[in-house]
Amino acid sequence: MSNELIKQKLTEKFGEQLTGWEEQFGLLTFSAPAELNLKVVQFLYDDETLRFRFLTDLTGVHYPDRKGEEICVVYHLHNLIDNIRLRFKVYVPSEKPDVYSLSQRFSGANWMERETYDFFGVNFIGHPNLIRILNMDEMDYFPMRKEYEMEDPTRRDKDNEMFGR
């Protein structure tokens, strides 16, 4: 199986709705609207040629300069039979970071979605127990967002510019 075949099958099914096609270090990457994440994952799972039936990783990224799509949810899926992986991204606004939960399809998504909620504030719709997993329940912010200054702004070894802020 090749990345070209995967892209072809996805394009046949979803057309122009999938964008941002890249191939870095042999890893096929693409983006889709947030409301399609379940449909795309279900297609990748069910298609007898593609067979992406293992969720390797799920995480978030905060892009404060991307207006209207500041929060990115990144999925890494793996076809264990053909030993091929892909990266799938969904962008949502930080004011309403709603993404459908994959926990019904992949049981491992449960904790990964809780961690992504805990640190980035992504609301996984349909998650059975979306509560903080590592931080204190009393926290009213999401610490991995690039909205906060470093702890001591006078230190030169911890300049915000060094951390992409």
Features:
alpha/beta, five-stranded mixed beta sheet, 3 helices, two-stranded parallel sheet, 165 residues, Beta Polymerase, domain 2
Topology readout:
Layout: H1 3-14, E1 19-24, E2 27-32, H2 37-46, E3 54-62, E4 71-79, E5 84-92, E6 98-100, H3 109-120, E7 123-125
Parallel strand pairs: 2-5, 6-7
Antiparallel strand pairs: 1-2, 3-4, 4-5
CATH architecture of the domain at 3-97: 2-Layer Sandwich
Radius of gyration: 17 Å
- The end-to-end distance, rounded to whole angstroms, is 40 Å
Count of DSSP H/I helices: 3
Query: Strand-and-helix sequence, N→C?
Result: HEEHEEEEHE
CATH class of the domain at 3-97: Alpha Beta
Q: What does the overall shape look like?
A: globular
Instruction: State the total count of DSSP E strands.
Output: 7
Low-confidence runs: none
Structural class by SSE content: alpha/beta
Strand content: 25-35%
CATH topology of the domain at 3-97: Beta Polymerase, domain 2
Strand order of the largest sheet: 1-2-5-4-3
Q: For the record, what is the CATH homologous superfamily label of the domain at 3-97?
A: NADH:ubiquinone oxidoreductase Nqo5 subunit
Oligomer: single chain
Helix content: 10-25%
Biggest beta-sheet profile:
5 strands, mixed
Mean pLDDT, nearest integer? 89
